[in-house]
């Protein structure tokens, strides 16, 4: 359990970086508190694996500091940071039994045998590997192997953090949830800092207390799944989280109204003022499909749009509509009326988000 | 490195950092081990090159300089030995002959081995395991065993002293080798690819040439390398089956060394020239062989 | 690849190969077998002699000596070349232009015609014109491969190590390259020592290639001919005469068809036996890997 601080951290793979694009990780500050379960969520190529490797010590950052409990560890390799890491595919020692696999890290630091056995048995029990202890590691299934990989990280008492790099990639879907629950169990029991890298928001949400969303080398938001959903700090978070993602509209101010593609939007006055005062041409308004209400007939303050498609998904429906030449979605609970091609939309004013230069701006009513 | 285990499950604070070695020291140790590795490898390579360097050295000297006092590099650099070889048909024809039968062998072997390897890789058929093993035994057959029968056989069909004879004779060990390596590579291409191609309407030949072969290109590179190598270096059979027309360079060289006054300079130059084709082949397939030397069976 | 389709038409694909190999292997082999059981006195006069030639050959003391020398030779070079090859593979660079350069340099000895290899070493070890021969002499060592059997053996072994270790090195290098980086990373995190990394990660992955290496090296060493022949001619005396040379002398030089044919068969069978053992090992390892979907 360690508090990990990233200070002014940046990393580039090229020798002479010239622009922000050359950086895999752009300058960031971050604190991972002791004992937390965190997820690092983002699309491929956003830098999350790079960040993980910097934290674990497999990669030395080109700029900035990594601090463990206040001590600078940039140059310390992973074996000296008391880190355990679980990789995308199971990494086990084929020629050894499961027991020997789990005992391996302890044997390497000369812990006496009588102390190793109870520890290995304890970890095996937690991971439900006890019946396999005597088996050769070679013949196991993928999820059993991955559990052994995790076990090797847990068996060390001194482990300060466990880092997971998309560990469920090779696991069968029906076993994924089992392992996820197992990880949560382990976290609650051992209270170790855990950082879990994934591109799957569901995995992140079920595992982590707090999620760091990464986009283009930056942590654009760090918050609970609830916070990410309700108050996304960046348009990317809005777009990435939720199923389907947030609707984002490019807007501008004109003649006392907020205009999207030549249509005025029904938004509160506070918003119109905020848009007018914004010092940029990159202004966006976001509204989640859940908070778009679709009406079959015209009414006061409703925006006309063209319905494209309605998908009935059981307990809810997705309405795909066209507005100003772009497609958006609305999510309605079941039991909604039939819609003609012309529909009318209202937005839940409390759930509107204003984004200037991609970042959220608070609008005080 | 011992380590005092403390009871840390209850959230007590403990030492996060394991290392007792300062960073600078660790870096020094690391670069010292790198240096040691480089030195060992360098020594090995130097020892490897030494006999070849010596050959090069001799090839650039005149016979009198060679037989005179020991000189570590040519005092009077001369290309005469090489020129002699290039202008004397009885010398350079040896190279031409060797290259001819090696290339023939490579082509024949590939044409025959590709379909056969595909069959072994994709299908089960009567006697397939036995056939495969029997093939491998040919790989292990000592050419010496076949000297006399080959001699008689090729003589009787009128192929004695032809390039094709040597090319065919080398098939004895090259075909099994090619099939063995290719089968390994082909087996790592999923069968689904074949099936998809058929569904897409490809005929078998078209699928094989346009889709399959590009997928195993590194395997083919490895095979060509081995085919070239084993055919180029084999002397016993090549010598037995030829006399004047298709004489390989190896035979011409041994002829020279049985003559009374050994022409060391020319011999050395001829030797150097036998290495050149090999270097070219390695250079062209260098990216493939590092991966593929394990014969597709890692 | 456990999902092979049963299809006897695959024989069509195999046919061209079969024809060629039949031509280059079966027919000649049949001839040899034919000769091995006959005594050919003249073009039309031959007696069936059964196993007589085989018995003569097996009892021939010279051949037994050559056989003994051959075994000793093969074992010695295996003992040297396998560890050396592994060691070199471990220190070869893994990427960059250095990797290609080292690769090309290392493969050089493999591409030289075998008689040229013999010639190179013949020159190299001469006292008058060879660097090594001259160098040893300057150091005061009494080195003479034409008179001293020990020197001759040492030189042949050195030559073979120089010639063929690169093959073992290349095979092992290839095997090492197939190990994903994550294994090394995990080992670092587990604080494994260098020896543990070698023993538990590298060596197991090398087993497949090592069996191939041992098979190839054993086979080839058992058939060695041109290199020692050019270097020492089999001497001094017959101290460096190995099996193929004995056979070649008999077959071509003395034209004793019967005995040489019988000897050929025995020779072939010995190699076959050892190779069969290796083959089953390779197939067994292959099956093992396929059944657990290898990683």
From TrEMBL, chain A:
It comes from the Bacteria. The keyword Phosphoprotein does not apply. Keywords: ATP-binding, Cell membrane, Membrane, Nucleotide-binding, Transport. Residues 4-241 form the ABC transporter domain. GO terms for molecular function: ABC-type ferric iron transporter activity; ATP binding; ATP hydrolysis activity. It holds the Pfam family OB_MalK. PROSITE patterns: ABC_TRANSPORTER_2 (PS50893). GO terms for cellular component: ATP-binding cassette (ABC) transporter complex, substrate-binding subunit-containing. This is ABC transporter ATP-binding protein.
Automatic annotation (TrEMBL), chain B:
Residues 95-285 form the ABC transmembrane type-1 domain. CDD domains: TM_PBP2 (cd06261). GO terms for biological process: transmembrane transport. One of its GO terms (cellular component) is plasma membrane. It is found in: Cell membrane. PANTHER family: ABC TRANSPORTER PERMEASE PROTEIN, MALTOSE TRANSPORT SYSTEM PERMEASE-RELATED. Its main location: membrane. InterPro entries: BP-dep_ABC_trans_perm, MetI-like, MetI-like_sf. The chain crosses the membrane at residues 39-56, 99-120, 132-151, 163-186, 207-233, 264-285. Belongs to the binding-protein-dependent transport system permease family. MalFG subfamily. This is Sugar ABC transporter permease. It is a multi-pass membrane protein. It comes from Halomonas hydrothermalis. Keywords: Cell membrane, Membrane, Transmembrane, Transmembrane helix, Transport.
Automatic annotation (TrEMBL), chain C:
Residues 67-278 form the ABC transmembrane type-1 domain. Pfam families: BPD_transp_1. Keywords: Membrane, Transmembrane, Transmembrane helix, Transport. The chain crosses the membrane at residues 12-33, 71-91, 103-124, 152-176, 197-219, 260-279. It is a multi-pass membrane protein. CDD domains: TM_PBP2. The keyword Cell membrane does not apply. It is found in: Cell membrane. SUPFAM superfamilies: MetI-like (SSF161098). One of its GO terms (biological process) is transmembrane transport. InterPro entries: MetI-like (IPR000515), MetI-like_sf (IPR035906), Sugar_ABC_transporter (IPR052730). One of its GO terms (cellular component) is plasma membrane. It comes from the Bacteria. Its main location: membrane. The keyword Transmembrane applies. Belongs to the binding-protein-dependent transport system permease family. PANTHER family: GLUCOSE IMPORT SYSTEM PERMEASE PROTEIN GLCT, TREHALOSE TRANSPORT SYSTEM PERMEASE PROTEIN SUGA. This is Sugar ABC transporter permease.
